[in-house]
Specification:
By secondary structure, the chain is an alpha/beta fold. It has a domain of 194 residues: TIM Barrel (Alpha-Beta Barrel), CATH 3.20.20. The chain is 40% helix and 13% strand. It contains 11 helices and 10 strands. Helix 3 packs parallel to helix 4 and helix 6 packs parallel to helix 7. It is globular, with a radius of gyration of 19 Å.
Length: 319
């Protein structure tokens, strides 16, 4: 079995219920505001290095598509605040958004400001438009909504007008407005173009879809990312949600315990993280308990190549 870099594995023996209770308790106790740092998380999250800088990045983050597109009311935002509290309490930091995600940037920005954790957050968002001036206008608006004058990662969403937008992103990186730049897509049909961009451009990050039932990225894109020194963010690790829903009623196989998994979410996330080219996985959720469960996948033992093949064989054999 392999481990992500720079963090010790979990000691194990903690039940899923105990972990969820402790993670939630740590988040509430921390408050992630005035009492920041008062209590440790029950298990620290593993990290992987960003190849272009060597910076360590926690392996589990949170996506905001649909889940953070909420109104201003406390009833709508309270669970999302808890999601972020749990993420930070577990040692996570990555929050991914986009202008196309409705109010998600605004909500994330408000919550981060309210919790006083902008300095701890690795905020990633995207430019999703055509034309240089419109791209600049949109990115400035994202910074306003996210309440951050410098964004950790700006990505060209779904490769829309990527040549124009990457030129601006390179200038912004040189000026210190962003720390990293990248491109994204979420479907196999775009892989030929995505591969061409990865081969022809100097990128810090690529974001793509990868899951147990959606492994096309293994053929060329993940090996290419490793070869080119590009960090990988994985979206749709639950196969768009359908994969996790389909497995939910089934008992876990015996081998799940060998990699410390106590839920299907953990199995699916650890499978993705077992690929050495993957830097961070960003499943979306609006439920604090699901966030805690996801974070648990970022601790302890990750599946090595042999275990990953065993998981794939199990998946293929049941269909």
């Amino acid at each position: 079995m392999n481990h992500a870099s720079n963090e010790r594995p979990s000691k194990g023996g903690m039940s899923r219920a105990e972990f969820l209770r402790l993670a939630m308790g740590a988040a509430v106790g921390l408050g992630l505001g005035p009492g920041l740092g008062a209590q440790p998380a029950p298990a620290r999250m593993l990290t992987r290095r960003i190849p272009s800088s060597g910076e360590a990045l926690p392996v589990i983050g949170v996506g905001t598509w649909q889940t953070f597109d909420a109104g201003p009311g406390e009833a709508e935002r309270a669970p999302l605040r808890e999601v972020l509290q749990v993420l930070f309490a577990a040692g996570g930091s990555v929050i991914d958004s986009s202008p196309m995600y409705g109010r998600s940037e605004e909500v994330a920005g408000d919550l981060l400001a309210g919790l006083g954790v902008h300095e701890r957050a690795f905020v990633a968002t995207k430019v999703w438009t055509r034309g240089r001036e419109e791209g600049i206008r949109q990115m400035r608006r994202s910074m306003q909504l996210l309440r951050d004058e410098r964004i950790e990662l700006m990505q060209v969403h779904n490769l829309v007008d990527w040549r124009t937008q990457l030129r601006t992103l390179r200038t912004w990186k040189e000026e210190g407005r962003i720390r990293y730049l990248g491109v994204t897509h979420y479907t196999e049909s775009a892989y030929d173009e995505l591969e061409a961009v990865m081969r022809g451009e100097k990128l810090d990050f690529v974001q793509l879809n990868y899951a147990l039932n959606d492994r096309a990225a293994e053929a060329r894109l993940l090996p290419l990312a490793a070869e080119r020194g590009i960090a990988v963010l994985v979206n749709q690790p639950f196969g768009g949600g359908g994969l996790l829903r389909g497995l939910a009623a089934q008992p876990l196989p015996d081998w799940a315990a060998e990699i410390g998994c106590e839920s299907w979410a953990q199995v699916l996330l650890k499978f993705v993280l077992g690929h050495p080219a993957v830097t961070c996985v960003i499943p979306g959720t609006s439920r604090p308990r699901h966030m805690a469960d996801n974070c648990r996948a970022g601790t302890g033992v990750l599946p090595d190549d042999s275990m990953r093949k065993r998981i794939v064989a199990w998946w293929e054999g049941r269909r």
